[in-house]
């Protein structure tokens, strides 16, 4: 009797879940077969395949959660490499999410895929650069033959990532609500980076961070006989942190100046102050030049003398404080930042010495030594070995070495095309002052990180690619979002005014 009841339950379950039962049973048989014939690795892959299918299904169903996960994962790639053990590179997870989001947008018929928004000046510029990188497959300057593996490794970050970023942001940045959530998520992540800097200073470094400081980072992050530490927060190094912080803080200041929502204004100003403090702790001198250059772009794009004049005055006062005074020189970090404006500073001129040494060899390599070619890929007898050994110091020099004067010129031209196209949109296509502020902030931040890339190797470092190229992709989307943005902003302003009215009524009632 018991067996009959048990058998009926199994039959009932199989009837209700027949498809899943059959699939799991077949997977089980396949796993056993592969274990017996192919070994443990194939067996393990088959065993975890239901989990991968479940994850894929979950992302398919809640794809915006995957988008937000991408933003967070991208920000902490370098932090994970130092402090958190994950069995797979987070950069691969980052790229896998991007590709999965694109695939979902293609096959998901529930919502409209905004593929038409991808076709703009930014896509043109990326396509030109992408084409140059494809040609670089055939680069045999070093006389070692075509190395597809090395090329693909280098091209992933230098070209493929830019295309994925543009496509993902164009497909998923579809409403004003998503836009404001993105800006605030970026701000919260930046606030965490400032907090982690405070933690490094006041609580101490983790064991992994200490190993980095007294190992690979000893010559660049431990200065002045060990009395000055350049902090790097959740980033790969202090230069990356400083340039990102300068660019992000500039964007948040602009968002704060131009938004009409009072609580957003306060929030962005508070975040910008914290991030600027963190920037100074990085000791990255280039960060100051990043802010100056980016701020100049904002002044041009603001289209408002009411904003332009006070902002220019405040910016000039702060710049004069660093250049023409000695105020704060008792602080080592401020003193180091101030040296960025000292042309005779020996440490700051090391980059020029390295560039001069590289230039002698690059005369014979107009196409560069090849994308993905590093010191380990070039034998000792090859004359370009020394070029791979000299620290490039900056992203533009790194691109110059890999793609030659031809490649770096095309890259610079493409970046100018991206910036000019976005600036045109801000100047002539947008009407909403707050939306103009978002566009101007993104353009200023992009300019700042590009200036940082001229002196430091930061443009393709995590999280800068997704953050700043994604920011430019947003600018190209703003004309599509503007009608909804104006309505959304009016709703928020109405709520703000209602709260203000109720607060005033409570004050008057309290007086009575």
Task: Describe it.
The protein has 512 residues and is an all-alpha fold. It contains 21 helices and two strands. The protein has helices at 2-16, 18-37, 40-61, 63-75, 77-83, 90-107, 121-135, 148-172, 176-202, 207-213, 218-221, 238-258, 262-282, 286-301, 305-324, 332-338, 350-362, 385-389, 395-429, 433-455, 464-511; strands at 222-223, 228-229. The chain has a two-stranded antiparallel ribbon with strand order 1-2. A hairpin with a 4-residue loop joins strand 1 and strand 2 (228-229). The longest helix is centred in the C-terminal third of the chain and has 48 residues, at 464-511. The mean pLDDT is 83.
Shape: globular
Number of helices: 21
Instruction: Report the span from N to C terminus.
Output: 82 Å
Structural class: mainly alpha
Give the DSSP E fraction (strand runs of 2 or more residues). Answer: under 5%
Question: What is the number of E strands?
Answer: 2
* Order of helical and strand elements: HHHHHHHHHHHEEHHHHHHHHHH
Give the averaged pLDDT, no decimals: 83
Strand order of the largest sheet: 1-2
The percent range for helix content is over 70%
* Largest sheet composition: 2 strands, antiparallel
Uncertain runs are: none
Rg from Cα: 26 Å
Q: What's the quaternary structure here?
A: single chain
Question: Key features?
Answer:
512 residues; mainly alpha; 2 strands; globular
Provide a compact summary of the structure.
This protein is an all-alpha fold and 512 residues long.
Task: Write the topology of this structure.
Elements: H1 2-16, H2 18-37, H3 40-61, H4 63-75, H5 77-83, H6 90-107, H7 121-135, H8 148-172, H9 176-202, H10 207-213, H11 218-221, E1 222-223, E2 228-229, H12 238-258, H13 262-282, H14 286-301, H15 305-324, H16 332-338, H17 350-362, H18 385-389, H19 395-429, H20 433-455, H21 464-511
Antiparallel strand pairs: 1-2
Helix pairs in contact: 2-3, 3-4, 4-6, 4-9, 6-8, 7-8, 7-19, 8-21, 9-13, 9-21, 12-13, 12-14, 12-20, 14-15, 14-20, 19-20, 19-21, 20-21
